[in-house]
Amino acid sequence: MEHLEKALQSDDPSEKNFHIRQVIQAYGVDHLPDEIDSQ
User: Fold this and answer.
1) Residue 27's pLDDT is what?
2) Cβ pair 23, 3 in contact under 8 A
3) pLDDT confidence tier of residue 32, bands split at 50, 70 and 90
4) Of 5, 9, 23, 36, which alpha carbon lies 20 to 30 A from 17's?
5) What is the per-residue DSSP string for the chain?
6) With the C-alpha atoms ordered 16, 22, 23, 28, is the resulting torsion angle positive or negative?
7) How far apart (Å, rounded) are the C-alpha atoms in residues 22 and 4?
8) Contact at 8 Å (CB) between 6 and 18?
9) Could you state, in order of their start, the residue ranges of all structural domains in the chain?
């Protein structure tokens, strides 16, 4: 949550990207299923 708040407060695009990437890395990968059906 802290990274999202900092991303919203920042005017610097690279700093926004940093905080958003931290959230994606921390939470995005954890929610992928063990097996992905590609069909």
Assistant:
1) 76
2) yes
3) low
4) 36
5) -HHHHHHHH---HHHHHHHHHHHIIIIIGGGS-SS----
6) positive
7) 9
8) no
9) 1-31
- Residue 21 corresponds to which tokens in the numbers above? 């990437």
Which residue, 22, 25, 27, 17, is CA-closest to 3?
22
Q: Which two tokens stand for residue 16?
A: 């926004």
Return the amino acid letter for 28. Answer: G
Q: 1-37 burial, b for 16+ CB within 10 Å, e for fewer? A: eebeeebeeeeeeeeeeebeeeeeeeeeeeeeeeeee
